[in-house]
Amino acid sequence: MTDAPVAAPRRKRPEPFEVTVRSVRFESPDTATLTLDPHGKKDYLAGQYLSIDAHQFKQLTPLITFLEEQKGRREPIRQYSLTSAPHEPWIEITIKEEVYVPGETKYLPLLSNLLVHGLAPGQRFEVSGYSGPYVLPEDTDTFTDLIVHVVAGSGAVPNFSILKDALHRDVKARHVYVCSNRTREDILFAREIEALRAAHPDRLTVVHTLTRDPGAGDAYRHGRIDLPLLDRLIPEASRETCLVYACGPAIHPWDRRAALEAGVTATPRFMETVLGVLHELGIQNKRIRRETYG
User: Domain of 24?
Assistant: First the structure.
């Protein structure tokens, strides 16, 4: 197998195009999947994302004006990973509503509430895409026979796309899908992933870990993703050749700055913890793809 896998994302400049909302499907009380008609613009790779500029939504203008005054800069475009896979008829994005927590959240959330609760079928808006290097190598089977997905919360979104795509295209590599959530109700795409596991029992292993649901039963593991778990799921013989796709929350730059000013170390979050475990297992950075949110 090739030693240094290099993904081949499409580097062309993302182009704006219009989409139409076909449906809104709630995955949980605070997370919704938007099914979008891209009007023929479907040239993307599993794991990539769309970009959305909040300035196009007039109902957000007062909040945008306030936030830009507070921050002293223009509000940036937001990115949302694609839930869909290229073989599916429509494109989908899944959005978790951000909440403002006094004393913890620095600024009011801007766009997620509108995308989760404020769009109706038939509404049109503009996106830019498709972008992102969080994709499988073009010839995955020459790089590995094991793909490990390590995700938390809405970090499941791009990995779900990658998983569906790889199984549909009959990529020969086996998959291990490890997903961390607080409770069973927080798990995204639980039924769909179980259906994939049942259809491909020799190609897909699924493990759910729950941090706040001690009575979850035998189908779920209580606790966080840790060294003993990944040590069991990633065979020692595969640690030099596997590909790991890790997606989840990481330390926010604000937290790093605050910790630096206080003379302390920022508290590790999911991504920092998982990377530490993977390195302990001897998996090199060149074998790890990562995507984070703060």
Answer: 15-131
